[in-house]
């Protein structure tokens, strides 16, 4: 993959602007999508599908995959004409895209479980009636799988040569090797057989080779155009710092060192955004403004304008900010943990879009995971399955933060399935820059004692993480004695470890889901979390260096 990065400039690469589809594509890009240029590989993907070829598109999150199929859908000069059918797994994202496209005047309909009978009836009428057909149909894999009515509508369009292409977004869901495998994606295997000759485009941000091969195999698109790029962003410096009480002070000093440059600070909640922006303004005289989803459209517009004009240099935002704003961002700061590695990659990815050096700082404290876990647990709309997926996402971020040895690039790219030689980082991450000597220690015995300690708790006993640490280290603390925890057979089993070491061990076990923290609200409304034995779903191989 490393060589793939520069391939767009390689001499043997075809000049994509010479294709017969280019003229219409660039015109539609400007007129319909109001964008100036294609990003890396977008035109290549568009040309391939307009030429009726199957395509596999690997692009990082936020790289601009949607345009690869939305733009050809509104082109009329392709080899296949008619409806572009987009299979997309997340209803919220689907609705979002449908609204965006409609705002651009694009004729789009959808089928999903959210829309109700009337919505489905309208979509159906547009696909079967005698009037003008829509350009795009968004559909969930479940609907495509289960609805024989939809299948027969598509069959009819196929016979009338009114099907332009099938698009499989988040295509890694097809593969059982992938981390988001979905049953209903299995039925997509039949597309090639049921609609021969209709080009298929599969898109994903998962670069694991096994997954890619499996997807191509399952969809029956061997020999497709492979459109891939490295996920490495060589001009970004990745830094993870401990989040301490004076975090704002730390952030402010960093910003003062980067006077006149623009940056984004991500916070988890709207209140935090407002609070941080205010403190940076009032206490440090910095040009900061907050931005979040609950602001009025008017306020949002004002803030965006101030940011665009330079009157505001720092935006303190929830993840709602950043869409479609291409400004030369010199730094991205995570005031609290991102929700997932995808999110981290996308949010840091907003820095240095111009190719010049930019910094990404993440402030990490394990305590922030509790806020995230609670957010996930309390969200009413999310299914249990989705919640579990989100929790898994947070654990991956914690693991990344806690690993203060391996090159940050190696870790980020490994998450997406790409290998990376750490020497190529050129000390552009805090771990590669760290010159402290590293020590490897086997923590298996200590880990086992810690698990046994928690397991030995009686049915009515509950221990917080701090109590657990105290018992493990055999601390002489009154509350521990009062509760009788000093009679635990593993009391003091970790007496040789420093508090810091013991805490990292617990955190690692929490990340591995060998231990879990369960949140309870007591009678006075106070939230407490207690350590319990976890699911043991992950194997118990501890990463020795992250404990050293
Ligand atoms: P992905 O699906 O790969 O994660 P999206 O298709 O959602 O990414 O695009 C991410 C963002 O990039 C969107 O805000 C989109 O408007 C923007 N974008 C995509 N292509 C371009 C382009 N050629 N120029 C400017 N912005 C673009
Ligand atoms: Mg996408
Ligand atoms: Zn590095």
TrEMBL record:
- Any one Gene Ontology BP term: double-strand break repair via homologous recombination
Q: What is a single Pfam family found in this protein's UniProt entry?
A: RecQ_Zn_bind
Q: What is its EC number?
A: 5.6.2.4
A single GO molecular-function term is: four-way junction helicase activity
- Compositionally biased spans, kind Polar residues: 1-10
**Residue limits of the Helicase C-terminal domain?**
243-395
Judging by the UniProt lineage, the source's domain of life is Eukaryota
Reaction catalysed? ATP + H2O = ADP + phosphate + H(+); Couples ATP hydrolysis with the unwinding of duplex DNA by translocating in the 3'-5' direction
The alphabetized UniProt keywords are: ATP-binding, DNA-binding, Helicase, Hydrolase, Isomerase, Nucleotide-binding, Nucleus
Signal peptide (from-to) = none
List where in the cell it is found: Nucleus
Main subcellular localisation: nucleus
Q: Name one GO cellular component term.
A: RecQ family helicase-topoisomerase III complex
Uppermost EC category: isomerase
Q: Which SMART domains match?
A: DEXDc (SM00487), HELICc (SM00490), RQC (SM00956)
Query: Helicase ATP-binding domain: from which residue to which, for each copy?
Result: 46-225
Q: Which family does it belong to?
A: Belongs to the helicase family. RecQ subfamily.
Can you say what this protein is called?
ATP-dependent DNA helicase
Q: Which organism is it from?
A: Sistotremastrum niveocremeum HHB9708
